[in-house]
Amino acid sequence: MALGDNGDAVIFKMKQKSKKLPDFLQSVNLKYVKLGYHYLITHLFTLFVIPIFILLTAEAMRTNPTDVYDLWHHHLRYNFVSVVISGVFIVMGLTIYIMSWPRPVYLVDYACYRPPSRFKISAHQFLERSQNHYGELDESLMEFQRKIVKQSGLGDETYFPEGFHNTSSTPTYTMAKAREETEQVMFGALDILFSTTSVKPKDIGILVVNCSLFNPTPSLSAMIVNKYKLRSNIKSFNLGGMGCSAGVISVDLAKDLLQVQRNTYAIVVSTENITHGAYSGSKKSMMLSNCLFRVGGAAMLLSNKSKDKRLAKYKLVHVVRTHRGSDDKAFKCVYQDQDEAGIVGVSLSRDIMATAGSALKINITTLGPLVLPVSEQLLFLATLVIKKLFNPKVKPYIPDFKLAFEHFCIHAGGRGVIDEMEKNLDLLPIHVEASRSTLHRFGNTSSSSIWYELAYIEAKGRMRKNDRVWQIALGSGFKCNSAVWVALKNVKPSTNKYSPWRDCIDKYPVQTFVKQM
């Protein structure tokens, strides 16, 4: 999902206030606050039962044997049947209640793919080679690309697939090349994951793969099953067409499957295919993806095994998903279609920033009651009720999400949306540093970008036990999805040869966007 970069297209150079990401925290809707509190209330019984159980246990421990004997001798011995029946019901009730608890889902580890150095491409090389690979572009189209690239926030060490580095005039965007790119990314990330976790492929019970544009037959998930000889009863899923927010959707699906399949592992693979998604036409709104998207992918190992708690890096706390597809404008703001010449591409509409703001508003308002401290919730809710019932001119209190999270992984779709998220949530430069650095170093890697950002935070040595992480991504449909994790241990700066930030972490944050901050 590419959002908010400047250029001479109306999508990226917007002077009108309405074309910027809306100030969604100033126009929240009460019904979405109610939805967040509904999530909270569903667990209210647990919140009440646990303290009562603790109090009863403490009281029982204070009771001496004489009191127990007197209770039995004077009251219970003549009602033995009633005692047994009551005991059976109590045990059954506790068993059912405990069995209904959601099983914790742990992120044992994850791996981000870093392509070989020969696939690196600078801004100058991209512009030079795009003439050969994206058709005959006139000077006005080349100038448009120059503006997009200049303002995109991408650096000179992002990666393009091997076919783009072919200096011949014949494009190499074939099905075979697209399969080759996907295999390199998926298998590269999975090889690292299996190596660092020592988990065997045969131990995997659930597999979820997401790739928006490239969905061949057999599926990408079938390619992984074939490559690693996964077991025949594996629960495998292949998600397509769900955009840059599909990584969180995949995690959510794996989480739900781990609730019903006991004592197993789930693997989630998030990627996108640049070869298959290349646009060789001349429609500006479809040319944007060529300028912003780059090769990347990530593989995550999830577990519901209790023994993995001491080994895992993170525990999944919340997933909140927002889908605006019922609105026609939102549905079509990121749309794959053919241009006037019949060439297929993905177009971004004029309404994309307003749509993104609406989806963000709903998602954040729903998430707030689940994560914000009580003090922030009360202030926010009080001002919102006053605004709705008494004085419409009262501005809602803007909750401080920095009190709910230590780390923010905002999808690196474009510099503009990162800027607006920083402004609207009143974040500090360090909170969006991972997003800006990922965009600069790796470009927009679609649904996997939030994992490169998490790897950045770890590589900087900032992750501590009990730190809370907010991953938020936007995607076609239109969707906004959030995942909240809590660190189970201090994560040491990654020094192994598999880190995507190896040998370059000390270069970031780069001075150019430090000044912009």
TrEMBL record:
Q: Where is the Beta-ketoacyl-[acyl-carrier-protein] synthase III C-terminal domain?
A: 406-485
The EC number(s) this enzyme carries? 2.3.1.-
Pfam families on file: ACP_syn_III_C, FAE1_CUT1_RppA
Q: Which GO terms describe its molecular function?
A: fatty acid elongase activity
Q: In which pathway does it act?
A: Lipid metabolism; fatty acid biosynthesis
List keywords of the entry alphabetically. Answer: Acyltransferase, Membrane, Transferase, Transmembrane, Transmembrane helix
Provide the Gene Ontology terms for cellular component: membrane
Active site located where? C244, H323, H407, H411, H440, N444
Q: Which reaction does it catalyse?
A: a very-long-chain acyl-CoA + malonyl-CoA + H(+) = a very-long-chain 3-oxoacyl-CoA + CO2 + CoA
Q: Where in the cell is it found?
A: Membrane
For the biological process aspect of GO, one term held by this record is:
fatty acid biosynthetic process
Q: Where are the transmembrane segments?
A: 37-58, 78-99
- Outline the extent of the FAE domain: 98-389
* Family recorded in the similarity comment: Belongs to the thiolase-like superfamily. Chalcone/stilbene synthases family.
Query: Mind telling me what this protein is named?
Result: 3-ketoacyl-CoA synthase
